[in-house]
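This week, look over our next protein:
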Amino acid sequence: RAPLMADAEMPPTRRRYASKWLTLVLCEAVMMSSGTLYLFPIYSPSLKRSLDLTQEQVNFIGSAAHFGAFFSVFGGLFFDSFGARATLALGGGLKCLGLGLTYGILAGLLPASKTLAALAAWVFGTGCSSSLTAALGANYATFKDRTVHGRLVGLLLSFFGLSSGVVSLVFDVFFTDPVVFVKVTAVCAGAVDALAATVVGAPKHLALPPEEAIPSSVQGAGASLNNVQNKVKHLRKFFQPASVEMKLTRGQVVCAATAAATALSAVVLAASGSSEQIAIACLLGITGLLCAQVQTLLVGSGKLTFARTEMELVDASGSVDKKRDAAERGFDNSVTPGQLCLSVDFYLLFTALLLGLGSGITVVNNLAQIVSAFPRLQSDASGGFSHGLLKLLACANTLGRLGAGSLSDSLSQQGVMTRAEFTVWCFAGMAVGMAVLVSIPDDSPEFFLIAGVSIVGAAFGALFWAMPTLVMDLFGGKHFGANRGIVGLSPAIGGYLLSTKLAGAVYARSAHDGLECVEQGACYRDAWIANFFVSALATAACSVLAGRDKRRRQGAATGVLGFRDNTSSAGEC
């Protein structure tokens, strides 16, 4: 790495750049604002009533948001060209515009058009995906050690999944009108991204100065938490400086606790009859955990921002990273978007994600209607059970992302399985969740709904983690933004086919008036059966992909070893 640039070579500027840990914290906030994508079940009933929509049309609007969120080629190309800072600003603006249009429709300020509602949802989803790409790219750039990338991505994406649970609790405490809630969310989502854009992301020719190494003796401080004695002392150690690996682990622990608290709040609120006092107490507890997350990541990190004169010059062409990738993996996988479309691995991954994530989107988009299909669950006007399931889905989604990132890092480092092989089990989990939903009995659906939504949520979160991780693993990081956007078309198509068309048609067939179905499990059972089989097919496709990836890596490793042996022999001669 080049030395610090001389002051004479630097143009005068007041711009500052966030440290790696401040970048991570701010990008967690960006993920929270992007995760409001999953709040569609809160205002979809109002949208359905205002526009007099069928369930298929409601699903189409929900799928439009997911289409924008997953098919992020525009945001990816923008990120590859202009970097994280500009892309965060773009994402925040699109979120504010998309939700602002939705508010205008619900408030009667704009025409009651389902086409405009779908356009607004797509714009909002595109903003979410643009900000997500920028957040991932900015952290990939600052955390160079690939052995922690699984945990890093899992931690970031967990906040995307956690968002709906936390923000729905905010709705329970402060709002009664979903229309006003949409307006406030539009402003807040855009503001968070705009704030992060002020310091996150550095030009490709600049890099943060190296961190001070953390002594190995400090790294064990977190592990001593297992000791039941001196708990106060150990709690203090939890917030002391530590290595990168330990900090990420601590962040995962606090995030998992936040997800568990979110799920617990749903249970407590249901038991208390949606008590406002209980909701406020739950929200304060979760806010405290979020503050603890910030503290454990920023403690001992030194300076939070750097002036341009403090940054270091690096190779902006990417040739150094490309050579490092080839040396680490044994083969060069910096695949361009054009080469991606000619790759067998791309089509296997595309097919698997289309079917697997498409099945998960069906549950997310239809959650409110899944509950309303059972009249016995609609005893209260506030839709408490539906909101409780939303919080549970957020918790499972978060834990799925955290668990996938942590387990994949551990298993890959031990040589047990590659990340692609690990993803096979995530697809299998989606199939299991669909099997549980198929089995929902009409007389007592609560347990099976809770179990099915939890399993689907965890599998969906794990697969959401897998998508950017496998794009980086299989196709390299040079064109990450564009490649992730192209791969992201798969769940967008899957959501439209499985949620809008299939589930919408099954629901309409069971509805007496074509609008509202109250036939309990029959409203969606055929859709769950179909989703079970397509999830099994996705598992098979990912198994083939994992086998190809493993054989390629083994062949590359053999070649590298042979090259080293030949080099050693030549040196001896």
Remarks:
- The longest strand covers residues 16-18.
